[in-house]
Amino acid sequence: MPLAPNIEREKTMWVQQIKLAFNSHVLLKCIGLTIFISLFFTAYFYVLNHPAFPVTVIPNTYLDRLIGFQPLALPIYLSLWVYVAFPAMLTIKLRELYEFTLSIALMSTVGLVIFYFWPTTIPVNEIDWALHPSINFLKSVDAAGNACPSLHVATALFSGAWLGYILRRTNAPFWVKAINIIWCVSIIYSTLATRQHVVLDVLGGLVLASISILLARQLFWQE
Fold this sequence. Notes:
Radius of gyration: 19 Å
């Protein structure tokens, strides 16, 4: 009988830890995320518009032809910028917040350096973007450059792995961990469904993120 209260306490402990994390250093996190994303986009669009060398077209593959165009995937694609905030917002210690910021900044910098010296783009799609105003707006803002490796994919996988580390440490239930995985995979899929990237871009992003995750695990994670 005494075991029941302990079980209930364990079930709610992760919620308490999440609440504590969200309420820790809120102003610093919000300002820091705003500055980080602003600096990233400034560098991203500069590299996009000032490539050092001729642009290489990354070809389609058989898988690209199998995956259909899905304009309804756009909200999932854009949700990355909410998703990437969770690992930062769920940190309690300032040291861990700095470690996450440093890690994702280093990964992004590597991607931008690759884009600068090896500018890439995706093939022209035979889609009338005027029929899809939301996607057409995305295309007008984010031209089909800085393609390989996909930083959208790399950021999603890296954020998902770091968030998974936090959820394991707080003993979050399986369904919360499952939502994290599904969200991460959905964002990666959306890069193909919205025709922002091709499969080879995605593979490049997965490799970049995997290397960054291994480094973070060796240097920062305590499991």
